[in-house]
Amino acid sequence: xxxxxxxxxxxxxxxxxxxVVKVGTSSITYDNGKLxxxxxxxxxxxxxxxxxxxxxxxxxTSGAIGVGVPVLGFREKPAYLPYKQAAAAxxxxxxxxxxxxxxxxxxxxxxxxxxxxxxxxxxxxxxYARGMMMALLELGVLPIINENDAVAADExxxxxxxxxxxxxxxxxxxxxxxxxxxxxxxxxxxxxxxxDAKLLSEIPSFSRxxxxxxxxxxxxxxxxxxxxxxxxAEICVHSGIDMIIAKSTVPSVLxxxxxxxxxxxxxxxxxxxxxxxKRKMIIGADLKGKLFVDEGCRDAVLHKGSSILPVxxxxxxGDFQDGDIISVFCGDEELARGITHFSRKDVExxxxxxxxxxxxxxxxxxxxxxxxxxxxxxxxx
Length: 381
Ligand code: ADP
Description:
Shape: globular
Distance between the termini: 45 Å
Strand content: 15-25%
Oligomer: single chain
Bound molecules: adenosine-5'-diphosphate
Low-confidence stretches: 1-7
Number of helices: 14
Radius of gyration: 22 Å
Number of strands: 13
Strand order of the largest sheet: 3-4-2-1-5-7-8-6
């Protein structure tokens, strides 16, 4: 079996523990807009087998509008926005129903997640979206993600599922994004126009000049084309996430990719320290307040990578709400910054307390046992 760049790349792929798989409309539907059940069945079988192997998988799927269009009796995608949204609303339910039934046959449940741009930009929504996705993965459920096309107006839209899949990979801390498309990978020019276009099997370091090779979608049903796939690659490589573009119809494509076989185009990511990933989100954001912690908590945060538990918190300052970004101090020393799960008012009620005492002090059931979870904590030292 061939593999790119010898054993190191094979090892790189074989070590992947959390992957995002994105499928486009052109892969999951036929030209007439009806679902390609044979493809979906093969996809489900491979994804469930990877999950059984211990790999966490997230599926990003397009297709809601495309599937809803024939269900509503339209001959083509309507231009009138409310009709398009209606097609998305009907198509999304239809699509999820099919996914649920097919994945269930292989022993897995699926969870529908509909995202919009705000879920990646707003720290509070980012934190909740991330927490929910992590919970689904931990519970062995396959998150199936789409943009919320039924409500999303242009200004709150990410706009294409290639970019969405890269954002999801970064929110979920995935280590690989696989974009399955109707094309073998990135060519040096558009292969549907030029017979002599050459497939590029590896992009060792991403450069913006690659965009010159990319054009729009290959089919009337596709939306992004190669351009948005390169936008996704750019997000991934700078976030330390490897990415592959491969043709969805290659037999056993996911098995073979995860065995390290050289299929499609591999975008090698930059080495990004996990702390640096959080840095992007947390540094530069408006700080809404301060959290003061004791020496024991300082030690746990700086040397053990721990979350901040109420028991180590001594006080708070500023007018912050849950989901805001705050700084963490021990005396005069700023230790870290992170997204708080509790408002200042609530932090003051629970500081110094053990987890078991929190509910009584708050007067409601605490949704989290940490004030700042280590996933959302950027340590400054
Ligand atoms: P999907 O629906 O699977 O996301 P798209 O149709 O949106 O797929 O995008 C893939 C298409 O992009 C290809 O079929 C091809 O026609 C077009 N394309 C444009 N430029 C390139 C390029 N340099 N390399 C490969 N494909 C390209």
